[in-house]
Amino acid sequence: MTALLVAGCSGPDRDAPEPTPSPSVAPSFAPGAAGAGDPYFPTYGNGGYDVAGYDLQVAYTPASGQLDGTATITATATQDLSSFHLDLAHLVAGRVTVDGQAATSRADGNELVVTPAAGIVKGRAFTVVVDYGGKPQVLANETLGTGGWLRTKDGGFALGQPESASTWFPVNDHPSDKATFALAMTVPEGLEVISNGLPGQRSTAAGRTTWRWAERKPLASYLAFVVIGQYRVRTGTHAGKPMIIALPESLPADGDAARSVGRTGEVADFLATQFGPYPFDSYGAVVLDDDRVGYALETQSRPVYGNTFFVGRPNVTVIAHELAHQWYGDSVTVARWQDIWLNEGFATYAEWLWQEHTGERTVQQSFDRVYSGFDWSVPTGDPGPDGIFGDAVYQRGAMAVQALRRTIGDPAFFALLKSWAAEHRDGTVRTEDFIAAAERAAGKDLGDFFEAWLFGKVKPPLP
């Protein structure tokens, strides 16, 4: 809210004429954009509206690979809309309504174009209901890999970055549009379903079980996930919140994966001393025993780990990385993919903090191991669309964080880590926002510092 202050005015001017009402302006309806306008991925997401929440009712049959769902999407128009796009890949939409009225829809590649019976004026809230179905698949990117729905012999899972959600529900698939997420997933009785947030009531009828999950804090679409199959699900509490850990029955109940994710609470508590209070309503972890998943992903409130991280040894460092994302990446989310160092640089730095905490090596020793022989040709703050998962983002990003610490000192640095997470909680940010926050914390201009450490292409001098 902005207040208008008038100097020397203690009350209304009795002699001033009554204001003349502005003539009403007729809406200027136009289609919403087919992309969110991301500089790296212009076709990702959509324009013209802001989603508040997704409420999904989905049924999946592993034997056939068929998925059928109804998505209820609540949103607000950010322009006068004559039509709008939803991202929906490899699935077919049936009946579509907007505010209960039948709407027309058509597929345009991986886009579902919806035309409501009447235009939607800017600022108006509206509800879209889409019936859809088919056999979901992954989205493949030549350099970034695949993301989305993967079928397994006893179920399936949906996972991936930067795209995945559109392979199993209609969505504005870009991190700039965060929304709440609720899922009711119906599967054959005897299978488990794990997803984001808090578990709801489970019900079984006619040989099928419906599992319910809800994430009440806004979530970026790539952080939504579902895992279906034969899992051991351990439910407890930690710090007064639910702790839910799921491991596939194909892995030993007391093996390296189980021991590693079993330390989730311990790691989260340590990170809270560095970053401030844990930002979500539940904790947890899911392990996948699938050769196609050689990565871990910070799926909101419950990270998912490929078992490759735990072969032959426990690995708590990866737990620290993905849990750090709950602050940096999940709660505080990048508004464009170019700024992903704000996710990965901080999560890599959290690994270094954890290793120092456990006595493995100091943060400065971790920095020195990378700094001496690093290739500085790719800038952290602008790595290019093919470089968003490269060393310039992870390792150089973490080095930039440590260099900032050495530049502004520990008191200002650790205060910044907490204030950044608190002030932007549940929101979206850009690199410019962090630079401004760092300069406020330091009490000085840091333009040259960030130009060298984030955007330069030569080795920066040590602070």
Automatic annotation (TrEMBL):
Region spans: Disordered: 7-31
Alphabetized UniProt keyword annotations: Hydrolase, Metal-binding, Metalloprotease, Protease, Zinc
Catalytic activity of the protein: Release of an N-terminal amino acid, Xaa-|-Yaa- from a peptide, amide or arylamide. Xaa is preferably Ala, but may be most amino acids including Pro (slow action). When a terminal hydrophobic residue is followed by a prolyl residue, the two may be released as an intact Xaa-Pro dipeptide
EC number: 3.4.11.2
SUPFAM superfamilies assigned to the protein according to its UniProt record, in alphabetical order: Leukotriene A4 hydrolase N-terminal domain, Metalloproteases ('zincins'), catalytic domain
Membrane-spanning segments: none
Listed cofactors: Zn(2+)
Domain (Aminopeptidase N-like N-terminal): residue spans on this chain: 54-223
Enzyme class: hydrolase
Pfam family, one: Peptidase_M1_N
GO terms, molecular function: alanyl aminopeptidase activity; metallopeptidase activity; zinc ion binding
InterPro entries attached to this UniProt entry: Aminopeptidase_N-like_N, Aminopeptidase_N-like_N_sf, Peptidase_M1, Peptidase_M1_aminopeptidases, Peptidase_M1_dom, Peptidase_M4/M1_CTD_sf
Peptidase M1 membrane alanine aminopeptidase domain: residues covered: 277-453
GO biological process, one term: proteolysis
Gene3D superfamilies: Neutral Protease Domain 2, tricorn interacting facor f3 domain
CDD domains documented for this protein: M1_APN_like
Origin superkingdom: Bacteria
Family stated for the protein in its record: Belongs to the peptidase M1 family.
Protein name in the entry: Aminopeptidase N
